[in-house]
Amino acid sequence: MKTQPGLDRALTFISCHLQPAGKRQVSPEEGVPRRAVTISRQAGSGAHAVAEKLATLLQARSPKDACPWTIFDRNLVAKVLQEHNLPGSVAKFMPEDRTSEIADTMEELFGLHPPSWLLVRKVTETILHLAELGNVILIGRGAAVVTANLEHAFHVRLVSALEKRAQRIQELNHLSKEATLKFIHEEDRGRERYLKKYFKADVDDPLLYDLMINTDRISHDQAARIIADAVMNHP
User: Fold this and answer.
1) Which end of the chain is more exposed for a tag (fewer CB within 10 A), N or C?
2) What is the model's pTM?
């Protein structure tokens, strides 16, 4: 059975960290600093493209035997289900965006899924666990807030003008302009609501981040290089 590339990398990452310490030639205890990156983004600002390039750059700068730099985004839900022994059917009730508060409340009321706060708590625990291991890039789900007290975590926010974001998404998903604008609005509002509801935080608060990049003016390659340099020089 084939697995998604993102899940394959996640499993490799997990397998690496599960190895006995004696079989790994490098570790934080041996003087190799842990590092983790969180990426908050506006829909269509290029987070996935930047994260892929960033992972490659950081891997090239890491010790040869270090665990692979791994991106956790959509595959994060799979990791949460595994870590907390939750059934796969719960996954559809764990979106970061789009689910309205009314729909979510009604689904809980009728027992269609566990309380949202419980699911978010489990996601939060998994984000912290992954960030503490290091060599991870965590996209979304309030990761910047969840890991705010981890000194080795570096927080990035990617932004872009609505017109540019709509153009990227239209080209990628072959949507009409109307459908694209609706998609962007739902994604951005959903993420804003998620942070406000569960973390009492404003996704646009610049103080949540170490670095903010406008991907209209900075290419994905340049953004990845800027972030990589900042991460490697981060205390």
Assistant:
1) N
2) 0.78
Q: Residues 176-212: pLDDT tens digits?
A: 999 999 999 999 998 998 899 889 999 999 999 999 9
- For 22, 50, 162, the CA distances from 180, given in Å and listed in that order, are 51, 21, 10
3-state secondary structure of 26: coil
Three-state secondary-structure class, residue 205: coil
Element of type H or E holding 212: strand 211-214
Number of Cβ atoms within 10 Å of the Cβ of 215: 24
* pLDDT (tens digit per residue) in 71-104: 988 655 555 555 555 545 434 434 444 444 544 4
| CB contact at 8 A, 220 and 53 | yes
Our CA angle for 194, 142, 67, nearest 5°, is 145
In this structure, how many other beta carbons lie within 10 angstroms of the beta carbon of residue 5?
A: 9
Length in residues, the chain: 235
What architecture is the 35-232 domain classified under in CATH? 3-Layer(aba) Sandwich (3.40)
Cα separation, 95 vs 99, in Å, equals 7
How many Cα atoms occupy the beta-carbon half-sphere of 168 within 13 Å?
19
Instruction: List the structure tokens of 91.
Output: 């996954």
Residue 66's closest CA among 30, 35, 27? 27
